[in-house]
Amino acid sequence: MNEIIEKEEIKVENMIYEVRGKQVMLDSDLAKLYGTDTKRVNEAVRRNIEKFPERFSWKLTNEELNFLWSQFATANISKKSRSIPRVFTEQGIAMLATVLKTKIATQATIQIMDAFVEMRKYINNNLIEQKYINNLVIKNYERLIYSKNHLIN
């Protein structure tokens, strides 16, 4: 698995998108990481549909698909494809690895989970920094108002 990612210089983080407020990956990207065809990924889901509730995996709507096409040049979505892509949340990806049962799928899933964790840390750190900056702005604004009122009176 590491060989596949290193050879093609694939960054898993660039394959994670936000859809319906959740971080997800496309079936075609997962197939690439797992060294299989998109058709095989979706076949595994169809055969084990009870393991993939909608909170784990779903097919994109036309609006979501158009949004990904327009916003993400890196999205691995062929406009020639006859089927609507399926997306997987972190839990759906973990479940997919259990139904594919290949060594590559297991190794890829570990790297994908690491990427999700790193993204959460990054988002958390940015939120903490943003909160700190907001607090500084509020304090400075309060000082400015106090000084302005103090000068007027």
Describe the 3D structure.
It is built from six helices and four strands; from the N terminus they run αββααβαβαα. By secondary structure, it is of the alpha+beta class. Strands 1-2-4-3 form a four-stranded antiparallel β-sheet. A hairpin with a 2-residue loop joins strand 1 and strand 2. Helix 2 (27-34) crosses helix 3 (38-47) and helix 5 packs antiparallel against helix 6. The longest helix is centred in the last third of the chain and has 50 residues, at 103-152. The chain is elongated. The termini are far apart.
Task: Report on the biggest sheet.
Answer: 4 strands, antiparallel
| Series of H and E elements | HEEHHEHEHH
**So what's the overall shape?**
elongated
Distance between the termini: 71 Å
Quote the beta fraction.
5-15%
Query: What's the rounded overall pLDDT mean?
Result: 80
Name the strands of the widest sheet in spatial order. Answer: 1-2-4-3
Amount of helix: 55-70%
Number of strands: 4
Q: Nearest-angstrom radius of gyration? A: 21 Å
Q: In terms of structural class, how would the helical and strand content be classed?
A: alpha+beta
The helix tally amounts to 6
- List segments where confidence is low: pLDDT < 50 over at least 5 consecutive residues: 1-7
